[in-house]
Specification:
- About 40% of the residues lie in helices and about 20% in strands.
- The protein has about 280 residues and is of the alpha+beta class.
- Strands 4-5-6-7-8-3-9 form a 7-stranded mixed beta sheet, sandwiched between helices.
């Protein structure tokens, strides 16, 4: 008996044309080889200047409890998103979907954001994250997962900060959930969504990886300044942070005005309070 055959991945050109047209593929269940195309009547989006962060979540982000990376573990993230959950025993992410988005990732149009936490041995473990599709200045969030409290919320907050820093204008969430609504997502008609996609044409200011590095460099500069102590050493650390911010065009590291650079978590919280 032959093993079940998985059809070839969806062509990259087909996927990108679909997303630009406001539609996206899904499967009925994990074992399905067939896909169907979805065009929601109401589209959930998260305005990049409208993210809601609770006080407790701000505290978690500020403490840098999680380490955040971009595009470092795309396949593990999409496969984690496809795992069964107590409230979602079935998944729309079939093996054909997985392979299609891995192909899209290889050409730079699908991205992952990973959330890591060190275990008792000091080894970092993947505890949350998300993935999505990008084109022009649009990012379409596909799915997220969390294996510990707050991991998916922290991932989403970082995503919004990174998109803003990179110059994106539209974050598509596809379908509304209570989780997304609590963080500021709204629903708009599909026709309005198509108009926003059209208005978001053009290249972003920079890549998601470069935007992520801006926040991480703020943290590196912070550590360097702390190690140097006060006086001249602290001044050198602040100068390094200012250079990072100036290079990124946002002044993230130098924007506090108190001579101190920021940790990555504090940097994204500051960026999220700035006017887009």
């Amino acid at each position: 008996m032959h093993a079940p055959h998985t059809p070839p991945p969806i062509p990259i050109e087909t996927l990108l044309l679909a997303y630009r047209s406001g539609i996206f593929p899904m499967a009925d269940k994990r074992e399905d080889n067939d896909i169907f195309w979805v065009e929601p009547r109401e589209r959930a989006i998260l305005p990049l200047d409208g993210l809601h962060l609770s006080k407790s979540l701000r505290k978690v982000i500020r403490a840098d409890r999680f380490a955040i990376t971009v595009n470092q573990a795309f396949e593990p993230v999409i496969r984690a998103c496809a795992e069964p959950r107590p409230d979602h025993p079935e998944t729309w992410i079939s093996e054909r979907i997985v392979q299609s988005y891995i192909g899209l990732h290889r050409v730079g149009h699908a991205h992952s954001l990973e959330c890591w936490l060190a275990d008792e041995t000091g080894e970092r473990q993947l505890v949350g994250g998300l993935y999505g599709v990008s084109f022009d200045r649009v990012f379409c969030g596909e799915s997220m997962f969390s294996r510990t409290d707050n991991a998916s919320k922290v991932s989403l907050a970082w995503l919004v900060a990174i998109l803003r820093q990179a110059g994106y204008t539209l974050l598509d969430c596809q379908f509304m959930t209570d989780h997304l609504r609590s963080m500021g997502a709204i629903e708009i008609p599909q026709a309005e969504y198509r108009k926003r996609v059209h208005a978001a044409r053009g290249a972003p200011r920079t890549s998601l990886g470069t935007a992520w590095r801006c926040f991480m460099q703020a943290g590196t500069a912070d550590q360097a300044g702390s190690a140097a102590g006060s006086g001249a050493g602290a001044a050198a650390g602040a100068g390094s942070g200012a250079a990072v911010g100036a290079a990124a065009g946002e002044g993230l590291a130098a924007g506090r005005g108190d001579g101190l650079v920021l940790s990555p978590g504090k940097a994204i919280l500051q960026s999220l309070t700035q006017t887009s």
